[in-house]
């Protein structure tokens, strides 16, 4: 009798137990092309195009990956889906690109996105424009409280293959796009305190300048001061 009760109890436990929910995918770690570098290993396809192999590390709970490569000059994005941890794409020579990988799993709706890396595809250029500055804080579309001095701090990051950035033009206003040049900072200063008013939406962008006269535009970010 005792054995029968134990068996019945075990069956009940199994019947009542639930399968664990599938776990969402984890973001992949990018490997190559290297961040803020010039990629010189492409296979020549023509005078204007080479084939680059993009590589990343496998991520947990992932069935497939989506590679996204964007030409920073044209804004055109190429995508490729794969089950592997590398993929080859033909891209233009002598152009700056950004790339990222999205990890997917058909059992869940969540998609994990890797960090975004920039690189130049080697070509005929002997000098390179800086990569567009990445606006770090405030995040695009954010709402944030001003400090006791009615100010917020704008922060950005920047990189250049030639390592010859000389400074940044900061445009900031309540108009979109912002046309008011409020500061030109040195290459080492990548933040600026600005005065703001409550319940007001602001727009800002950063133009990066280098010693060869090249420049790049970060694009416009917006935030609301509370």
Automatic annotation (TrEMBL):
InterPro entries cross-referenced by the UniProt entry: FN3_dom, FN3_sf, Ig-like_fold
Annotated Gene3D superfamilies: Immunoglobulins
CDD domains the record matches: FN3
The name this protein goes by in its record: Fibronectin type III domain-containing protein
Species this protein is from: Maribacter arenosus
């Amino acid at each position: 009798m005792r054995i029968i009760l134990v068996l019945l109890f075990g069956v009940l436990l199994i019947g009542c137990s639930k399968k664990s929910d599938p776990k969402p995918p984890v973001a992949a770690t990018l490997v190559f092309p290297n961040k803020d570098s010039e990629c010189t290993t492409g296979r020549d396809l023509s005078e204007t195009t080479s084939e680059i192999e993009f590589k990343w590390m496998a991520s947990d709970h992932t069935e497939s990956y989506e590679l996204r490569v964007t030409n920073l000059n044209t804004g055109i994005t190429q995508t490729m889906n794969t089950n592997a941890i590398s993929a080859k794409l033909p891209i233009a020579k002598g152009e700056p690109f950004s790339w990222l990988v999205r990890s997917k799993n058909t059992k869940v709706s969540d998609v994990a996105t890797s960090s975004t890396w920039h690189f130049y595809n080697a070509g005929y250029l002997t000098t390179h424009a800086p990569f567009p500055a990445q606006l770090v804080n405030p995040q695009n579309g954010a709402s944030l409280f001003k400090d006791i001095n009615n100010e917020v701090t704008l922060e950005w990051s920047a990189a250049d293959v030639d390592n010859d950035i000389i400074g940044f033009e900061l445009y900031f206003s309540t108009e979109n796009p912002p046309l008011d040049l409020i500061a030109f900072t040195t290459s080492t200063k990548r933040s600026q305190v600005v005065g703001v008013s409550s319940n007001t939406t602001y727009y800002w962008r950063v133009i990066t300048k280098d010693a060869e006269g090249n420049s790049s535009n970060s694009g416009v970010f917006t935030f609301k001061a509370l």
